[in-house]
């Protein structure tokens, strides 16, 4: 090999593996805990307790929590710490509008593939949702089959119905 050529010449180029920082990993775990309901909507974030559960110090936990504040998942209250965000009544219409746009586009993309098995699953899920809206099925039996987002998990704390199918 000639000395004036870069070492990578003649070799396959492989991108560097990105590594997540401790703060990134903590933020991921906090999101999971919030989205799964392990950290309830409106609940205060017990910094010492959560840091102990995650096996990390409070400093990276605070930094990860600040990221979630910027994302709107947590709310910082000066002098009181942080808590899981709650969707207020006036924001619920916006949530439904966003979901409608996203889910309609997703349905169009899936339907355009013409995969009978997938279309059958979508039809069955839709029929379950219709049954729930007509009161023939409880919402709890339908919701786990749908991909729940942050918005769905936060609606109960707003103390309002989850739409026309909620009974």
UniProtKB/TrEMBL annotation:
Sorted UniProt keywords: DNA-binding, Transcription, Transcription regulation
Record-linked InterPro entries: GntR_C (IPR011711), TF_FadR/GntR_C (IPR008920), Tscrpt_reg_HTH_GntR (IPR000524), WH-like_DNA-bd_sf (IPR036388), WH_DNA-bd_sf (IPR036390)
Domain HTH gntR-type residues, every copy: 20-87
Keyword check for Transferase: no
Superkingdom of the source species: Bacteria
CDD domains the record matches: WHTH_GntR
A Pfam family that the UniProt record links to this protein: FCD
Keyword Transcription: yes
Protein name (Swiss-Prot/TrEMBL): HTH gntR-type domain-containing protein
């Amino acid at each position: 090999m000639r000395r004036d050529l870069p070492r990578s010449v003649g070799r396959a180029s492989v991108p560097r593996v990105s590594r997540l920082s401790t703060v990134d990993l903590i933020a991921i775990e906090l999101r999971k805990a919030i989205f799964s309901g392990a950290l309830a909507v409106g609940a205060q974030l017990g910094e010492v307790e959560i840091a102990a559960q995650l096996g990390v110090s409070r400093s990276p936990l605070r930094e990860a929590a600040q990221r979630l504040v910027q994302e709107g998942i947590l709310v910082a209250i000066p002098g009181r710490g942080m808590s899981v965000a709650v969707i207020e009544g006036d924001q619920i219409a916006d949530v439904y509008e966003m979901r409608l746009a996203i889910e309609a586009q997703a349905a169009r993309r899936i339907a355009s593939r013409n995969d009978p098995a997938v279309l059958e699953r979508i039809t069955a899920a839709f029929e379950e949702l219709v049954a729930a809206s007509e009161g023939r099925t409880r919402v709890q039996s339908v919701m786990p089959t749908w991909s729940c987002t942050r918005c769905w998990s936060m609606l109960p704390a707003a103390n309002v119905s989850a739409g026309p199918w909620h009974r």
